[in-house]
Design a protein that fits this description.
Length: 348
Amino acid sequence: MSNMSERFLKPSPDLDGANILITGGTGSFGRAFIRYALERFRPKRLVVFSRDELKQYEMQMNLPPESRDILRFFIGDVRDRDRLEMAMRGIDHVVHAAALKHVPAAEYNPFECINTNVMGAENVVQAAIRTGVRKVIGLSTDKAANPVNLYGASKLAADKIFVAGNHLSGADGTRFSVVRYGNVVGSRGSVVPLFQKLIADGANQLPITDPRMTRFWITLRQGVNFVLSSFALMEGGEIFVPKIPSMKMTDLATAMAPSLSHEIIGIRPGEKLHEVMIPTDDARTTIELDDRYVITPAFMKWQADSAWENGAAKVTEDFQYGSDTNSEWLAPEELHGMLDEIGDGDAR
């Protein structure tokens, strides 16, 4: 996988001079998004919308002084539609990254998960339409495809809400699309920081839930590049899925600590053996581009014609994009390249 950090790097000219808001902006993705957007574009205004006052303060302290005229910080929760509408006034583009993401926490706190992930998505859609936002991209997850846990089911519902938002906004209104990708190397709650801590603490073994388990992997920089490039491609209603590599969890552990053995601890409740980003049932509306797949909307009533209908290659009807059947696999040296990006600040 050559030029890993530059994967999905495409021009997004409409972001220069734009007013951009990101919900959940103090999370791992939000901080990376702000950093790269400041590096690559000249936005007029970047609005960080989140509910954590301390993280907002820390984020302000770590950003260069010249960015302070561009950045705005809004304390708010996506459960609060009025506050979202206030924050979105004058905004051109929105990235919706706020979510409750921890699988066991969602199972134990189902009402909180639904209120944030499902009702929050509805609030984002309605606030964006009412304030005249041009484009909105929602961050999804591989767990939304054929979900087996509440987190995945709530994100599937959010995906459906975003696609349907285009019908609510009409022909000349706000456009909504979704980006769906796999595990982010080094993000909070992922297995990589756990393994790193265990290795640093002198562990004798690394825990593996199942030796057959596979996962998709992407870096924060690649995820941000993918979202930014999707703004330029979107017509509304698409689910963009990046072509990214898979890796067996045993190979990941071996690459990180070749001398340590593995302890098989058993698969956890709500966990899949392999992840799927495009189920076979979605193959009928999926097209393939050079660096991504696009699940196009089954029906697009908000506009007469779609550019996706011309020139793009359709996948076969039995196509499925799964981490176990993926054609691209992550080599140990490529994983170490990803880990080096974390060391450079990707997962701060």
